[in-house]
Design a protein that fits this description.
With about 300 residues, this protein is an alpha/beta fold. About 45% of the residues lie in helices and about 15% in strands. Strands 1-2-3-4-5-6-7-8 form an eight-stranded parallel barrel, surrounded by five helices.
């Protein structure tokens, strides 16, 4: 074996054994929320043993999931002491009566007072609604006394909304959401799709602030996962410019040996949060693409030693 080959092998083995250099994202990570699906939640014996106290748990509503499963999952996780925030996907809701029924079930059976209101992942609406704005303007959430309403933000654009690759429609929607926040009693925030690069997020946050949008931003991060898994999800979900980070990583042989973890982007976003607090980069939202166990372990390792941070 040549000396050069030995050096290459040793460097790869050293990389494989090394602990990540970046261990924390400060309050940006300490406050992080996480997302689960009912079928994932059913495999978890105890959320209390898995997640840091105070973690907000979003419950993703994949089209076709019976509302009974969604509500039962919310009730179970809430019963373990966590705040739950179920998705309300507009295109999957057939009528105002059904929206009212879902709200009543969540409140009556799980004590839910928070919702992520979004358009949803299907192309054709099942009924009268095709956007989060239509759900919000029914007034049903305010009438039910919801204390928090989160809506989608798109730092890398969204071709489903702006097919030409621009941001005119998305920007108009943000202005509407800001106006709604000003007249709603609920606290609101923007939650983004998962991203792999801090720069587009920071630039977008500056741009929307200049446009008068002051809603807090919860930035989506992909939890620890194999690179192939992340690329598959990124392409399916239309992740934009930050996909280049994964493509670059795929070309680095040493980085193919270990799973991706969002340490670097978490630290960069925490630095931006501290340097420019006016940007409203409030916290991370974790998508457990490599499994909820791996994401929960990563999150727990980055909590402060003292009591849990208020979320």
């Amino acid at each position: 074996m040549t000396r050069a080959l030995k050096e290459v092998l040793m460097s790869l083995l050293t990389f494989r054994r090394a602990k990540p250099a970046l261990q924390t994202g400060g309050d940006f990570i300490a406050r992080a929320s996480i997302e689960v699906m009912p079928r994932t939640a059913a495999k978890v014996d105890s959320f209390k043993a898995l997640l840091p106290a105070g973690t907000r748990v979003y419950i993703a509503h994949i089209d076709g999931t019976p509302i009974e499963e969604m509500v039962a999952t919310a009730a179970r996780i809430a019963g373990e002491g966590f705040t739950v925030m179920p998705h309300f996907p507009a295109r999957s809701i057939e009528s105002r009566a059904q929206l009212s029924d879902w709200i009543a079930r969540y409140q009556g059976e799980a004590g839910v007072t928070e919702a992520l209101v979004l358009a949803g992942g299907i192309a054709s609406p099942r009924g009268a609604f095709h956007s989060s704005m239509q759900l919000l303007e029914t007034g049903e959430f305010d009438r039910a006394g919801f204390t928090r309403l989160h809506v989608a933000g798109h730092p890398e654009g969204n071709r489903d909304i702006d097919p030409d690759g621009g941001d005119a429609v998305v920007r108009d929607a943000l202005r509407w959401k800001q106006d709604f926040a000003n007249r709603s009693n609920a606290r609101m925030a923007l939650v983004t799709q998962f991203v792999f690069d801090a720069e587009p997020v920071v630039g977008w946050a500056r741009t929307i602030r200049e446009a008068g949008i002051d809603l807090p931003v919860h930035v989506g991060l992909a939890g620890p996962a194999k690179l192939q898994t992340l690329i598959k999800y990124a392409m399916a979900c239309g992740v934009g410019p930050s996909l280049k980070v994964l493509q670059k990583r795929a070309m680095d042989v040493s980085k193919l040996l270990v799973p991706y973890a969002p340490d670097e982007i978490a630290v960069e976003l925490e630095r931006a949060r501290l340097a420019e607090p006016e940007l409203g980069l409030e916290q991370a939202h974790l998508f457990p693409l490599g499994g909820i166990g791996a994401s929960a372990e990563w999150l727990a390792a980055r909590q402060p030693a003292q009591a849990s941070v208020a979320r």
